[in-house]
Amino acid sequence: MLKVQVTSPGEIAVVDAERPTPAPGEALVRVRYAGICGSDLQTFTGNQPFASYPRVPGHEWSGEITEVNGDSGDLRAGQLVTGNPYFNCGECYSCRRGLVNCCESNQTMGVHRDGSFQEYITMPVDRLYPADGLDPKHAAMVEPFSIGWHAMNRARVTERDRVLVLGAGAIGMLTMVSALARGAEVHIADIVPERLAIARELGASSAVDLTATTVAELMSEATGGDGFDVVGEATGLPVSFLNAIEAAAFGGRIALIGNGKREVSFNQSMLIRKELDVLGSRNSLDAFAPLIELLQRGEVDISPILTAVVPAFATVDAMRDLLEHAELNVKVLVEF
């Protein structure tokens, strides 16, 4: 079978490999589509601190079950599925409390263990979610959708809220869609016009270019100066964190989604003065099934976020293109 392997930082190739064999309790899955995520690019470039090599990237995927070793439950051969790529230990304090997304020994596909950039993978059956009736491309986007969905769960978004999302990458836009699905009024800000155009297509109340408008001006225009009930920070940049504090209403909530790589200095009294809830949001929890149902009912449309589909043999070129032209791509899928 074909697989994409990062042999060392900066070195990536499409190679032949043996098809894996499912262990008891596992299914063999023929991958249909795998999404390229920022963490995959970090693994490729050597900027992912938890990656070891050689490594097959990929944690966003859809596929068809080929066989199951043992009790298949409701699963069947030929069925379209996606899966939770975050493997928790089941023993740490977080896991014992049911917060498996916060597992202290989490292992993520494509980082700590081989991922979905290959024709066949094996997965524990209890980590698979049937996606009958979905476009396989959309099924491969359930995992990134779950990140934004979990963040808006953490921020307790309702139809009464005015929400600002900072960052219009794939996760930012799926965070926006998650808030829209709850009936909130949602605004989004970025510095890339092409991405903002997609956000408008998805239903943003406004999509603001922060190279031409300040956060203070955005807040004044969108809320009359009241501030946003919820701000989702989806870039990880220090300036974006400070913008989130400025944009939030007194008594508001900030959901931190983007992984920061640099320290940020701020006066903690800003949080106290506004009595802000600042919520970290890691991975997702209990999100796959409700999102699949949401997509099956046709209540949301995530197709505008998909900007390219490339064949497996072109994965290396696609990853290099994403590194050089990130502004032109939001979500790129690899077809296996």
From TrEMBL:
It comes from Tessaracoccus rhinocerotis. Transmembrane segments: none annotated. It comes from the Bacteria. CDD domains: Zn_ADH7. Residues 7-334 form the Enoyl reductase (ER) domain. One of its GO terms (molecular function) is metal ion binding. The keyword Metal-binding applies. Its cofactor is Zn(2+). Keywords: Metal-binding, Oxidoreductase, Zinc. This is Zinc-binding alcohol dehydrogenase family protein.
